[in-house]
Design goal:
248 residues; homodimer; Alpha-Beta Plaits; ten-stranded mixed beta sheet; alpha+beta; 6 helices; 2 domains
């Protein structure tokens, strides 16, 4: 049966996240409902991974299987007509039979935006975390560099992944760049894969370092402890963007 | 009595505009209410001009008069604590006795954002007009240049100003630049003053030119007709930003 890959962008502010959940409004639910309306059969779309409530996506990827071939341009147009404006399907293309949005992914890029001006920009209130205390950016950068490489990230993974064997928590972070931008900074994460809440837990820990509550040289010890309780709290979801999913 | 100047930014999406109106939620109302709570007396704030429902501001200016001197830093902080996050007071400073946010203004900058990609960016849905038809940007630029200079803008002013004498509709537009930006263009207006709905009426007319419904060389005739009915319809409010108000 034909398989399709969809590129999806959404403002996560008013959704319960990507994944279907009981009694909530998820991006996946809305896309599945719109697809079912167009194709007149129940539809499922599998995402590259879940994003939490409030987390945004510039380039989420999903795949779906249809009974027969579809006209991708027409379905793209119809989907965007049916979906709320917070969600846009940017592209639909045919995918190889063995393609899987989640299991075929070879890497991802996430960005986390921090607004550091004393007064929040009203246009960024849903798209960046506002920090009102002073941030030691040099120390934050030093800490960020210690996450780069291949590590067991158990200390930065929330329960959903923590039940699994230790090997499962090994991921490679290719880069964690701290980029200055108007009003604040952007943390750019690129890696082979990310555990549940890993980016937000790393950001939360980095903010504790930048705020003087921890020292950057504690990071290797937190990593080697493989204990979620040793790391900082998850940073709020609204600063986080899933930017890109890579496939080989 | 001491007079203060406030610099204000707001996301106009959920307000009825700047100006107080019966049975509506205006930015002015909310700031006056917050000021009254802090200073414990009824307060009035006069803006540089009204912005319509849905129009945004990066640098609206208002003035208010108090019975005695206030600590500007403290009032700034308290205002931002009381106001919804869509509205931020960016600065409060003492103003000369003869300062008036509206009558002392010597010029303004407005920006109007157009998104031209076939698929709307979900993060711009409230901050740019989405055009789905093709736009002839060269023709639009040619038409835009014909607005620059000193003209009677009666044909581009809605009723609120149209009742007044012809002399009142003479304004100088210093520039109307068409700037390309990711996903579309931005129209930058800088002038001595703007009549009611003038920017949106000019944008609406420019879009008719860019869409092939009018020719750029009609603009001088529309201007000289001094007749609102000769120009195009007002462009939607959500693409418009009041960027800066100038004072001598």
């Amino acid at each position: 049966m034909p398989k399709y890959k969809a590129l999806i962008s959404y403002d996560g502010s008013s959704f319960s996240g990507w994944q279907s959940q009981i009694n909530s409004l998820s991006v996946q639910d809305l896309i599945e409902k719109a697809l079912a309306t167009i194709l007149r059969v129940p539809m499922e779309i599998i995402g590259s991974g879940r994003t939490d409530a409030g987390v945004h996506a510039l380039g989420q990827v999903g795949h779906f299987i249809t009974e027969k071939e579809i006209e991708t341009e027409k379905v793209l147009y119809s989907l965007n007509s049916l979906l709320p404006k917070e969600i846009r399907i940017l592209d639909i293309s045919e995918a190889p039979e063995d393609f899987h949005a989640r299991y075929s992914a070879t890497g991802k890029i996430y960005h986390y935006h921090l607004h550091l001006d004393p007064i929040m920009d009203p246009f960024k209130r849903k798209y960046a975390l506002h920090l009102q205390h002073k941030l030691d950016i040099a120390e934050l950068k030093a800490a960020a560099s210690l996450f780069v490489g291949t590590h067991d990230f158990s200390s930065f993974a929330n329960q959903q992944s923590q039940g699994s064997a230790s090997l499962d928590a090994v991921r490679t972070l290719h880069r964690l760049d701290v980029i200055e931008q108007p009003g604040g900074i952007r943390l750019e994460f690129e890696g082979t894969g990310f555990l549940y809440k890993m980016v937000r837990n790393i950001v939360g820990t980095l903010l504790e370092v930048g705020g003087g509550k921890r020292l950057s040289h504690e990071i290797p010890y937190i990593l080697s402890a493989k204990d979620r309780k040793k790391a900082g709290r998850a940073a709020e979801p609204h600063g986080l963007f899933l930017v890109k999913v890579f496939y080989s």
